[in-house]
Amino acid sequence: MKLNALMDNFGARQNATRVGRGIGSGSGKTAGRGHKGQKARSGSRKQATFQGGQMPILRRFPKFGFNNPFAKEYVTINLGDIEKFIAAGKIDASKEITADSLFAAKIINRKLDGLKVLAKGEIKSAVNVVADKWSKAAEAAIVKAGGSIKNN
């Protein structure tokens, strides 16, 4: 087999229709565009949102919402998850639990703007957590278990 002898199966590729090449070709003169009008002109098409001259739906409804470019986004972790990972041996309860230690243990896959601890689940181990934010219930549960929480 030679590379210059390779070719597609018959009928695999269809030749492009050459329009505007004389009346005898079947698509000559107007080239299949009909007669006159906006659609017959080159480079001219109505927008996909055009609705026959009435006010488009995108302009009928008011704008709303706001995306704050300065808002901080936190990675969240629940107390139940911390307990689960301690039991699995991924986290050492004797050391401080930080965003860096969670990232190193591959529990979180990004650090974002900080770590937030939430109170879903139970914690029985006495852990020292260093976080940027936490819920009051999470703080109470950690202190009740004999641990501490401090600001990053």
Please outline what is shown here.
Helix content is 19%, strand content 13%. By secondary structure, the protein is an alpha/beta fold. The protein has a three-stranded parallel sheet with strand order 1-3-5.
If you had to describe this structure to a student in words, what would you say it looks like?
This protein is an alpha/beta fold and 152 residues long. It has 4 helices and 6 strands; from the N terminus they run αβαβαβββαβ. The relative contact order is 0.11.
Kindly list the characteristics that best describe this protein.
152 residues, 19% helix, 4 helices, 2 domains, elongated, three-stranded parallel sheet
- Percent strand equals 5-15%
- Class of the largest domain in CATH? Alpha Beta
The helix/strand series, from N terminus to C terminus, equals: HEHEHEEEHE
The CATH architecture of the largest domain would be Ribosomal Protein L15, Chain: K, domain 2
User: Going across the major beta sheet, what is the strand order?
Assistant: 1-3-5
Rg calculated over all Cα atoms: 33 Å
Distance between the termini: 68 Å
Given as residue ranges, the uncertain stretches (5+ residues, pLDDT < 50) are none
Kindly state the mean pLDDT as a whole number?
92
- Shape summary: elongated
Helix content: 10-25%
CATH topology of the largest domain: Ribosomal Protein L15, Chain: K, domain 2
Largest sheet: 3 strands, parallel
- Which structural class do the helices and strands define? alpha/beta
Number of helical elements: 4
Write down how many β-strands occur, each being a DSSP E stretch of 2 or more residues.
Answer: 6
The tally of structural domains comes to 2
